[in-house]
TrEMBL record:
It comes from Arctia plantaginis. InterPro entries: CISD, FeS-contain_CDGSH-typ, MitoNEET_CISD. GO terms for cellular component: mitochondrion. GO terms for molecular function: 2 iron, 2 sulfur cluster binding; metal ion binding. The keyword Lyase does not apply. SMART domains: ZnF_CDGSH (SM00704). This is Iron-binding zinc finger CDGSH type domain-containing protein.
Length: 136
């Protein structure tokens, strides 16, 4: 009898002192510190869908990168100068960007993100998943 009541009290204490984490932390959304300097980050038109999922890349803090917006580079997700080919008549320009911390980032490969050059989940939309891709 004594043992049962003791165990009951212990069980209540364990349950009441348990620390439950109910909030799931949201992933950090990176920003391009150069977007206010170079207007190419504000181009209205998006490029063609290159791929329907983002690409993870290890980036160094402070280094300047050029993200392909036109979707025709062969070095995706970065620019290789293909947009300069006059026969392709590409109107988009690459987006210069940098990062504040050296780590892995998910770069947009569907070219439809609203947070250039980082993936914002836009590729999950039905229209993008059903769109054709352009690979040269
Ligand atoms: S790959 Fe473009 S928004 Fe995710």
């Amino acid at each position: 009898m004594f043992v049962r009541s003791y165990l009951s009290k212990v069980a209540k204490n364990v349950v009441s002192s348990a620390n439950y984490a109910t909030k799931i932390s949201k992933p950090e959304i990176p920003k391009n510190p150069l977007s206010s300097i170079y207007t190419a980050a504000n181009q209205k038109e998006n490029g063609v869908v290159y791929d329907k999922k983002p690409f993870r890349l290890n980036l160094e803090a402070g280094k300047t990168y050029h993200w392909c917006l036109c979707g025709r580079s062969k070095s995706q997700p970065l620019c290789d100068g293909t947009h300069k080919d006059i026969y392709l008549k590409v109107t988009q320009r690459p987006v210069r960007f940098t990062v504040e911390k050296s780590k892995e980032y998910w770069l947009c490969n569907c070219k439809q993100t609203k947070n250039r050059p980082f993936c914002d989940g836009t590729h999950k939309q039905k229209e993008i998943q059903e769109a054709g891709t352009v690979r040269l």
